[in-house]
Write a structure and sequence with these properties.
The chain has helices spanning 9-13, 25-41, 44-65, 67-77, 81-86; strands at 19-20, 23-24. By secondary structure, it is mainly α. It has a domain at 18-81. Strands 1-2 form a two-stranded antiparallel sheet. The termini are far apart.
Length: 99
């Protein structure tokens, strides 16, 4: 009799986050943003230092509070497309602007 055949291979990997090399995607974004700012401003050394600090800090924060806290902070503090688009539009009840 052969070894146990795992018919549910996909279910074993469904909860694993997407990875870039050995980092998760959110860690890569947190690491690359300070580095990109450092490259743009011409301070590559500071960009690398801040990138390492941000990466380690994000890892510690995520370990201490979890992914749900990171999502809630991003939800409440980053603008969404609806907020950006609707910011400059007048209210719908205003039909004529007279000064």
């Amino acid at each position: 009799m052969p070894d146990k055949i795992n018919n549910h291979v996909i279910l074993n990997h469904i909860d694993k986050p997407a990875r870039f090399l050995f980092w998760s995607v959110d860690q890569v974004i947190v690491c690359l943003c300070p580095f990109a700012v450092g490259m743009i401003t011409g301070h590559i050394g500071l960009g690398i230092v801040f990138s390492i600090i941000a990466s380690v800090g994000f890892k510690v924060f995520k370990k201490k509070f979890g992914k749900s806290k990171v999502r809630s902070i991003l939800y409440w503090h980053l603008p969404t497309a609806e907020r950006l688009v609707n910011k400059g539009l007048p209210p719908s009840h205003v039909r004529l602007w007279i000064k």
